[in-house]
Amino acid sequence: MYIRTFILFFGIAFLASCAASRKIQKIADSNLFSDAVLQNAHAGIAVFDVEKNKFIYQYQSDKYFVPASNVKIISLYAGMKFLGDSLVGLRYKTGADTMYVLPAGDPGFLHPDFNGQPVFDFLKKQSKPLAINTQNWHATAWAEGWMWDDYNDAYMAERSAFPVYGNVIRWMQVRDSGSIAALAREEAFIYSEPDISWSVNFSGDTAARFFSVQRSLAENNFFITQGQEVNAKREAPFVTHGIASAIELLKDTLGRPIDTTTTRFQPEGIVYSQLSDSLYKIMMHRSDNFFAEQTLLMAANERLGVMDDKKMIQYILDNDLKNFPQAPRWADGSGLSRYNLFTPEDFVWILKKMKDEFGIERLKRIFPTGGTGTLSNYYQNDSGFIYAKTGSLSGVVSLSGYLYTPTGRLLIFSVLVNNSRQPAGRIRRKVEMFVNSLRKSY
Fold this sequence. Notes:
Elements lengths: L1 H32 L8 E8 L4 E6 L11 H12 L3 E9 L4 E5 L14 H8 L4 E3 L35 E7 L5 H6 L3 E5 L5 E4 L9 E4 L5 E5 L5 E7 L6 H11 L3 E3 L8 E7 H11 L2 H16 L4 H10 L25 H15 L1 H7 L19 E8 L2 E9 L5 E9 L5 H18 L1
Parallel strand pairs: 4-5, 5-12, 8-10
Antiparallel strand pairs: 1-2, 1-16, 3-4, 3-13, 6-7, 6-11, 9-10, 14-15, 15-16
């Protein structure tokens, strides 16, 4: 009798599972695969029911894809696992005539996203010259697989041991008058934040439509072209030269001598900067590559004692993330590298692990929801029901996260699209249709 009951129960559950999978397959067919937008692309989908603790739909979910900024989900895990509630801004030791400083990779130092600057306030109060030791820096300015010709774009700011201003110079063009007639003859006022003493060259072309800033590849030489806009802002990364550029910018700001040192010392104190979640929220909402890279490096510094992304990636894959369903190829912290290879099942697994370890409520405060962050133009009717990370590179669109159904059931999903020649916006709309239909029908 008990055997019959078990077989009957198992059979009903199996049929229900098959029915759910077929239903989602129809949703995928009608919203994704039947459309010319994805006809020649590669796609992988995984949908996991948290309550049932099993996948309810899988399509090429064990295949590898370039995930773009979905890699930030993994970097977020590293930060939440190893960085604590507040970010270490620096460690220090006060010598007889010198303040010794050991930086920790904090990306918020003098960054305009943060009004409070505890590290700067601490340094400003010191009267002794500063000596900065960077022997804990074992990384490079660019990560493995980054595209060199993106060097002038703010989304590829260099990584460093002691970032300042986000390792970016912000250029502004301002005009007093907004009239069309005045624009043709009025000279624009152009300035930078922070103010710099590096080489700046102005183009004689005053008829250009747009204000533009171009930096030399390997040096801090900037070339400015005035545009016809009334007000304009451009951002360009500066060459860090290790921490040489940071020291150059800080000397005037702090008003005291700053130099590097190879003297090793045992820190006597720590200065904390920002609340960790405040950084993570910006990182995930804006998909900030710089914050993601520095988060991984800071996690390495706290766990391994050195800022070494390659060593940290290997460490975490061998330990905390050793149970990925498919062993990934993890190359950087931001997803800028096309060397990254993950599967949809990998993202479902890490998202479930994060929910179990850190709690869904905390994650909901960090991930963007519909109508916010990188989802600001999407899922606007589902705000508060979806919490997900986008990803975009040329030919790549990805979306992985958490989805609540109208009955309150929690799903974890990942949709990865590669090798598409269609505009990314069109693919995102198709993925949005799929996710919305999935939510309403399950």
